[in-house]
Amino acid sequence: MRVSNSTDEDLDQILGWLKAEHAVADEGFWCNRELIERAHLKGSMYVAREADLAVGFQAGEYSADILCVRADKQKSGIGSALVEASILRADRDNVVALRVQCQPRTSIPFWQKHGFKLTCEDKAVRWLDRTFDLPKGKEKVEATISFYHTSFRYQAAGSVPPLSRHVIPAALSDEGDLILSKRIFAPN
Fold first, then answer.
1. Global pTM?
2. Cβ–Cβ under 8 Å, residues 177 and 139
3. Exposed end of the chain (fewer CB within 10 Å): N or C?
């Protein structure tokens, strides 16, 4: 599946099938055509094509403001190809997280399949892991990083279990700073 920036021809095709789907089912993303057109003009719309025809698109550089696959092409891997291309762009550009709104709510299993975690009723996030080489010649240590709910900040040490705990390789800088070997994320 080829995913690349949208062209004017892609935009015309997409608006055509969105309008047709809306006329039949009175739903879909036709009502968001202005957002779609703006994404195209900004260069932040990506299109999946089959035989040079636009069959799916994502509006949004990294996080999908809208991700849509033509009705007759759904459940064929096109949406997954768009998400994976977005993750590759985000990873290349050192983006920390991708956030989406799961609308319609029936899209929640799709986003979860791609590593997104619900943060509230209809929003989800995918944190992008990143590892780092530890500097040579620095003292290596094992770092333990724990996150606690803010309501427990005045509790006695060890009396409350952490929300998450991470044990990772690290190094100490000459100034005594801790240099981590990977990104650590606090739970939402």
1. 0.82
2. no
3. C
Q: Beta strands of 73-175 (E only): which ranges? A: 97-101, 117-118, 123-127, 140-147, 164-172
Q: Write out the two tokens for 91.
A: 């990873």
Q: Is 99 exposed, middle or buried (0-12, 13-18, 19+ CB in 10 A)?
A: middle
Place of tokens 């809306």: 22
pLDDT tens for 69-103 read 999 999 999 999 999 999 999 999 999 999 999 98
The rounded distance, in Å, linking the Cα atoms of 70 and 6 is 15
Cβ burial of 68 (10 Å; 0-12, 13-18, 19+) is: buried
Q: CA angle, 24 as apex, 49 and 12 as ends, to 5°?
A: 35
